[in-house]
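2024-03-11 09:14:02 INFO worker-7 job=invfold-0412 stage=load source=structure_tokens
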């Protein structure tokens, strides 16, 4: 009987150690691996539509516009997600919905469908402060079709994000469901 309880104790100890090890590995992968998209928020700020991507760490990005239909694209290094990877946008009159996916070359692409043409009025990062997380912020201003078309060649942020130049990533998007 004593021997059976000793075997049971050893098995329970091994199980506990195994589960602890799995938890540590999971914590390390989230802490040192891919950035985590924790939230995407949008709202109006001084007449502009602001998109805010909350991340678990400081993360490089690039953003640009695509036409036919009008879209805003934000590229990040390949990321994990704590929120849905697509959803409709019910705030404001510029954004319609977003969807995301992972591209070859280690990129995550977020595509916002626009209700009407707009231009990128500003794009920047904000560092973590207080309870606020690290953020990528993109401001959009409604614009005429001509201004929108003139802004199609402009890229803000890191043009060679993750070693994939914009020209190499664009064809993949044009032929994907993310375009």
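2024-03-11 09:14:09 INFO worker-7 stage=emit residues=179
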């Amino acid at each position: 009987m004593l021997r059976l309880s000793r075997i049971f104790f050893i098995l329970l100890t091994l199980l506990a150690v195994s589960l602890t090890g799995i938890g540590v590995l999971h914590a390390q992968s989230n802490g040192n691996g891919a950035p985590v998209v924790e939230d995407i928020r949008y709202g109006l700020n001084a007449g502009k539509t602001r998109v805010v991507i909350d991340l678990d760490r400081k993360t490089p990005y690039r953003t640009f516009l695509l036409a036919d239909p009008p879209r805003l694209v934000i590229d990040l290094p390949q990321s994990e997600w704590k929120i849905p990877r697509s959803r409709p946008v019910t705030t404001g009159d510029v954004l319609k919905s977003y969807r995301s996916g992972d591209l070859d070359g280690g990129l995550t692409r977020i595509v916002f469908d626009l209700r009407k043409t707009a231009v990128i009025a500003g794009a920047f990062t904000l560092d973590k402060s207080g309870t606020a997380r690290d953020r990528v912020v993109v401001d959009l201003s409604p614009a005429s079709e001509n201004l929108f078309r003139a802004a199609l060649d402009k890229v803000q942020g890191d043009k060679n994000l993750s070693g994939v130049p914009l020209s190499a990533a664009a064809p993949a998007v044009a032929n994907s469901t993310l375009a």
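2024-03-11 09:14:09 INFO worker-7 stage=report msg="The chain has three helices and eleven strands."
2024-03-11 09:14:10 INFO worker-7 job finished
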